């Protein structure tokens, strides 16, 4: 029997990971846990997912709302081999998982110190084989690793400065800002640089972040000092050999994140998700042979989803080879735009 996977938290990331788990043939979605009997819970029931209430108080709310829950989170945890925790940061469920003796994956809102093992399928899959607990870094961190790891592995990276123009919130969230403002993150470096180093400890990276009033994507501007001389064509060839990076072109009319998400809609994927990191091929410039500049866009709702699936395989040792796991995940999710 395939191992059983539970999802704790069924919001922006949780519902996507649940669908991705359900699309695999070597694991089984046992159920999802939620705190509120809202429209997302009702849609999960319509999909045929077993829905669990977070606790007994939540269970009473589910019953009042007419949603028949399969039990509470404690019941789900006792049933599964691994939990993907997609709850808000500092929710504090680790003792529950430890007591039940199940493995768990957390998302990037948590600190690296929670697990002391942060996961990226291309960079450190082998390090996470059989691990009891791992963390998948944030959407921004995952996006940076996706393009920097290949560069470092094949050309060599001396130093990185990344400026992140961050979306204010996800499209479904009407409570957050800023509105009609640009908000700098005054901490220097922003937390993204140290977070990248939780996976690539030897990478010299500094990050700056600003938050802007848009919801669809993040935009990164990177300046990379290379160890070896290379031109733009050689840089693009490196990225073409790696999965989960897609190249777009301003010359084709992709002038902004709006057109990238329109392209994602035209791919007819679930929720119009773009799991890949989009890099503008005509925005790649090399100055004096060793200073590389480029732009990339990150769909914050979905780029970490395939990493979660690969993390499950690594932790449960369903596949020892990271590249093979990535290929399997990518086929199941329809990842792989022509480069």
Question: What is this structure's SSE topology?
Answer:
Layout: E1 4-8, H1 12-22, E2 28-34, H2 39-46, E3 51-53, H3 56-64, H4 73-79, E4 82-85, H5 94-100, E5 103-106, H6 121-124, E6 133-135, H7 139-154, E7 157-167, E8 183-184, H8 192-197, E9 205-212, E10 218-226, H9 232-240, E11 245-248, H10 257-266, E12 277-280, E13 285-287, E14 291-298, H11 305-316, H12 322-333
Parallel strand pairs: 1-2, 1-4, 2-3, 4-5, 5-6, 7-9, 11-12
Antiparallel strand pairs: 7-10, 8-9, 10-14, 12-14, 13-14
- CATH homologous superfamily placement of the largest domain: NAD(P)-binding Rossmann-like Domain
Strand element count = 14
What's the CATH first level of the largest domain? Answer: Alpha Beta
CATH fold title of the largest domain: Rossmann fold
**Gyration radius over CA:** 20 Å
**CATH-derived architecture of the largest domain:** 3-Layer(aba) Sandwich
For the biggest sheet, the summary is:
8 strands, mixed
Comma- or semicolon-separated keywords:
single chain; 339 residues; alpha/beta; Rossmann fold; Dihydrodipicolinate Reductase, domain 2; eight-stranded mixed sheet; six-stranded parallel sheet; 12 helices; 14 strands; globular
Q: What do you see in this structure?
A:
There is one protein chain. This protein has two domains: 4-136 and 304-333, NAD(P)-binding Rossmann-like Domain (Rossmann fold, 3-Layer(aba) Sandwich), CATH 3.40.50.720; 139-298, Dihydrodipicolinate Reductase, domain 2 (2-Layer Sandwich), CATH 3.30.360. It is of the alpha/beta class and 339 residues long. The chain is globular, with a radius of gyration of 20 Å. Strands 7, 8, 9, 10, 11, 12, 13 and 14 form an eight-stranded mixed sheet that branches. A six-stranded parallel sheet has the order 3-2-1-4-5-6, with helices on both faces. The longest helix is centred in the middle third of the chain and has 16 residues, at 139-154. β13 (285-287) and β14 form a beta hairpin. It is 33% helix and 22% strand. It contains twelve helices and 14 strands.
């Amino acid at each position: 029997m395939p191992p059983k996977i539970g999802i704790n938290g069924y919001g922006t990331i949780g519902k996507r990971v649940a669908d991705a788990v359900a699309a695999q043939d070597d694991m089984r979605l046992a159920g999802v846990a939620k705190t509120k009997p809202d429209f997302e819970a009702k849609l999960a029931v319509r999909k045929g997912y077993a829905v669990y209430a977070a606790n007994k108080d939540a269970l009473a709310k589910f019953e009042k709302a007419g949603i028949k829950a399969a039990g509470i989170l404690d019941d789900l945890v006792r049933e599964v081999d691994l939990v993907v925790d997609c709850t808000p940061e500092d929710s504090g469920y680790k003792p529950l998982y430890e007591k039940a003796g199940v493995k768990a994956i957390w998302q990037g809102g948590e600190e690296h110190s929670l697990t002391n093992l942060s996961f990226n399928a291309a960079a450190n899959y082998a390090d996470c084989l059989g691990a009891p607990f791992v963390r998948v870094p944030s959407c921004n961190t995952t996006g940076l690793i996706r393009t920097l790891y290949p560069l470092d592995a094949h050309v060599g990276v001396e130093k990185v400065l990344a400026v992140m123009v961050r979306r204010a919130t996800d499209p479904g969230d009407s409570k957050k800002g800023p509105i009609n403002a640009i908000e700098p993150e005054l901490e220097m470096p922003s937390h993204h640089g140290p977070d990248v180093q939780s996976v690539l400890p030897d990478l010299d990276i500094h990050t700056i972040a600003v938050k802007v009033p848009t919801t669809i994507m993040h935009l990164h501007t990177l300046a990379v000092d290379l160890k070896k001389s290379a031109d733009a064509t050689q840089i693009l060839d490196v990225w073409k050999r790696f999965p989960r990076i897609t190249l777009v072109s301003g010359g084709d009319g992709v002038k902004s994140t709006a057109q990238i998400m329109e392209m994602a809609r035209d791919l007819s994927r679930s929720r119009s998700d773009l799991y890949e990191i989009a890099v503008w091929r005509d925005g790649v410039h090399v100055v004096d042979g060793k200073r590389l500049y480029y732009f990339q866009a990150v769909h914050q709702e979905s780029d970490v989803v395939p990493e979660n699936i690969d993390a499950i395989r690594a932790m449960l040792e369903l596949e020892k080879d990271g590249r093979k796991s990535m290929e399997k995940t990518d086929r199941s999710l329809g990842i792989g735009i022509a480069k």
